[in-house]
Specification:
Shape of chain A: globular
CATH superfamily of chain B: PhyR, sigma-like (SL) domain
Oligomer: heterodimer
Radius of gyration of chain B: 16 Å
Number of helices of chain A: 8
Largest sheet of chain A: 6 strands, mixed
Helix content of chain A: 25-40%
Distance between the termini of chain B: 56 Å
Largest interface: A-B, 48 and 53 residues
Mean pLDDT of chain A: 77
Helix content of chain B: over 70%
Order of helices and strands of chain A: HHHEEHEEHEEEHEEHHEEE
Strand content of chain B: under 5%
Order of helices and strands of chain B: HHHHHHHH
Number of domains of chain A: 1
C-alpha cells in the first residue's frame, strides 16, 4: 500500500457513523404531508408489505395527521402484477393528447395533466438523467392531513392510467407522477409523486351492482352506518366508500383491522380493483381513518387520526 | 426545475453516511451532526422548489447542510464563512486515530476544508469545485498537498513516540 493509499484509508476510517438513516424523521421535521414521492418507506416496511400481500399490494402506514404512502417495487426489480388478469385494456386514446383528455375528464378532481421531460439528478449526485414526468394538478380542500388523501389517490390513479394507456398505444410512458394540489383559494402546493414498477396491461374487475350491495352488507355487518358507495371509470372502475362509525376511534380502527380491512369490506382482494378510496368518519363527520389503493400505479395511502392510537406500522391487516 | 421529494429521499439514503461524516467533522459531535443532517434534508424537502438544477442536487443539499451547521455553531451571530467554520471545526474526539485527529487540526484551513469534503463528506472533485467555487485542478492539488502534510506530520509524531 502506498503512502497515499494509507493516508486515504486512515482518513476514510476516521469518522464512523454510529446510526442508521431515518427518513421518517426527516419527513416529520419537514412538517408537511408528503405523499407518493416522499413516501416514507423503510426497507423494513417494504419487506413486511410484500410479505403480507405477496401479489397484493400496499398497506400504508399512517401516523398522527400525516399521510403515509408507498409505491411497490418487487425486490428483484421485476414489475409487479396486482390484477387478477392481464390483456388488452380499454383504450383511452391513440395519442398522448387524447389519452390525457380522457383521463382529465374521467378522474373527478383533476385540473390538468402535463407530461414533460425532466432532468433529474442521479442518486449519486453526479449528473442527471432525463425522465418523462406527468405533472398533475388536482383540486383539494387543503394540502395536509386527511384533506389531501383524495387528491393523492387520484394522482396515483392518473399515474397508473397514463402508464397503461401510453404503453398500450406504443407511446413512451411517464416514469413518474408529480402531484400539485390546488386549494380553493387558488394556492398551489407541490407535493411530489411516484410510480411503482408494475405490469402495464393489468385488467381489474368491474364494480358491479352486486359488489356495491356486498360492500353495503359487509359494512353494515361491521357496525358501520351511513355507508355511501360510488364508482367512476379510469381505465377500469375505481370505487369510493365512505362510512360512519359510532364506536370510539381506537375501537373502530381495531375492528376494521380485525375484519380484514379493505379486503373484508370488499369481500375480495383490494388488488382486484383499479382503485379503492375508503374513508371512515366519526359520529361528528370527522375522518378517523382513510385507506386508498391504486394498484395500477403500485401505489396507495393510509391516514389515521391520532385518536385511533395507530402508531407507525402497527396497522396489521390480515389479508385473505 | 424543482427537485422531487423522491430524488431527495434517494440522495438521503445513498449518501447519509457521507453527510453524517462531513457534519461530524464540522460540528465535532456525532449527535449534533445527526441533527444537522436530518434538519438539512427536512429543509431541502421544504425548499425543493428552489432547486434550479444548477449543479448537482447533492451539492445543493450540502450547501443547506453547511448553512444549518453554521447556524448551530454561530448561535445567532452573523453566519461565518465556510472557511471560518472549517478553521474552527472542533473535530470529534477520535479514539480510533487520535494522531490523525491532531494532524488534521494542524492542517491549514483551506487544505482541511478540502480534506473534509473529499474524505468525510465523500464529495467528488467536481462537487467540491462547485461548492468552493474553485477549479477541479485546485481541488486535486490542494488534496495532494494536504495528504503530504498529513503524512509528514504523522510520521514525525509516530517517530517521536
Amino acid at each position: 500500500m502506498s503512502d497515499t493509499q494509507m493516508i486515504e484509508e486512515r482518513l476514510r476510517n476516521f469518522l464512523a457513523v454510529p446510526d442508521e438513516p431515518d427518513w421518517q424523521d426527516v419527513l416529520y421535521r419537514a412538517g408537511k404531508t408528503l405523499t407518493s414521492a416522499a413516501r416514507p418507506r423503510s426497507e423494513r416496511r417494504r419487506s413486511r408489505r410484500l410479505l403480507i400481500v405477496a401479489a397484493a399490494t400496499l398497506l400504508l402506514l399512517g401516523v398522527g395527521s400525516a399521510i403515509a404512502a408507498v409505491t411497490i417495487t418487487r425486490g428483484d426489480g421485476s414489475p409487479v402484477q396486482f390484477a387478477p388478469t392481464t390483456g388488452t385494456t380499454p383504450s383511452l386514446g391513440s395519442d398522448a393528447a387524447s389519452i390525457i383528455a380522457t383521463i382529465e375528464a374521467r378522474v373527478p378532481d383533476v385540473l390538468s395533466i402535463r407530461i414533460t421531460k425532466d432532468a433529474i439528478s442521479n442518486a449519486s449526485g453526479k449528473g442527471t438523467t432525463d425522465y418523462r414526468i406527468a405533472h398533475v394538478a388536482i383540486a383539494a380542500p387543503a394540502d395536509h392531513g386527511p384533506e389531501i388523501a383524495r387528491a393523492s389517490w387520484e394522482s396515483d390513479l392518473v399515474g397508473g392510467a397514463l402508464f397503461t394507456a401510453f404503453t398500450q398505444a406504443h407511446l413512451a410512458p411517464p416514469s413518474g407522477v408529480d402531484l400539485t394540489v390546488v386549494m380553493p383559494d387558488g394556492t398551489r402546493d407541490h407535493v411530489g409523486g411516484g410510480l411503482g414498477k408494475v405490469v402495464p396491461n393489468q385488467i381489474f374487475d368491474p364494480i358491479t351492482p352486486e359488489i356495491q350491495a356486498r360492500i353495503q352488507q359487509n359494512a353494515t355487518a361491521e357496525g358501520l352506518t351511513n355507508v355511501r358507495v360510488s364508482t367512476f371509470e379510469v381505465v377500469n372502475d375505481a370505487i369510493e366508500i365512505r362510512a360512519t362509525t359510532m364506536a370510539a376511534p381506537a375501537a373502530a380502527a381495531s375492528s376494521f383491522s380485525k375484519a380484514h380491512g379493505l379486503d373484508g369490506l370488499l369481500g375480495k382482494s383490494e388488488n382486484d380493483f383499479e382503485g379503492v378510496y375508503f374513508q371512515l368518519d366519526d359520529a361528528k363527520g370527522n375522518p378517523i381513518l382513510i385507506q386508498t389503493t391504486a394498484p395500477r400505479a403500485g401505489a396507495g395511502g393510509y391516514w389515521a387520526a391520532p385518536s385511533t392510537g395507530i402508531q407507525g406500522d402497527r396497522l396489521d391487516v390480515p389479508h385473505h | 426545475m424543482a427537485a422531487s421529494a423522491e430524488s431527495i429521499e434517494e440522495l438521503y439514503r445513498s449518501r447519509y453516511a457521507s453527510f453524517r461524516g462531513g457534519m461530524t467533522a464540522i460540528t465535532g459531535s456525532h449527535e449534533t451532526a445527526r441533527d444537522v443532517v436530518q434538519e438539512a434534508f427536512a429543509q431541502a424537502l421544504r425548499d425543493r422548489e428552489q432547486y434550479r438544477g444548477e449543479g448537482s442536487l447533492a451539492a445543493w443539499v450540502w450547501r443547506i447542510a453547511f448553512r444549518v451547521a453554521l447556524r448551530s455553531r454561530s448561535k445567532g451571530r452573523s453566519e461565518p464563512t465556510l472557511n471560518e467554520v472549517i478553521e474552527a471545526a472542533p473535530l470529534p474526539a477520535s479514539e480510533r486515530d487520535p494522531l490523525l485527529a491532531e494532524a488534521l487540526k494542524r492542517l491549514p484551513p483551506q487544505r482541511r476544508l478540502i480534506v473534509f469534503l473529499r474524505y468525510f463528506a465523500d464529495l467528488s472533485y467536481t462537487e467540491i469545485a462547485s461548492l468552493c467555487e474553485i477549479s477541479e485542478g485546485t481541488v486535486a492539488a490542494t488534496l495532494a498537498h494536504a495528504r503530504a502534510d498529513l503524512l509528514q506530520d504523522l510520521e514525525r509524531e509516530e517517530a517521536s513516540r
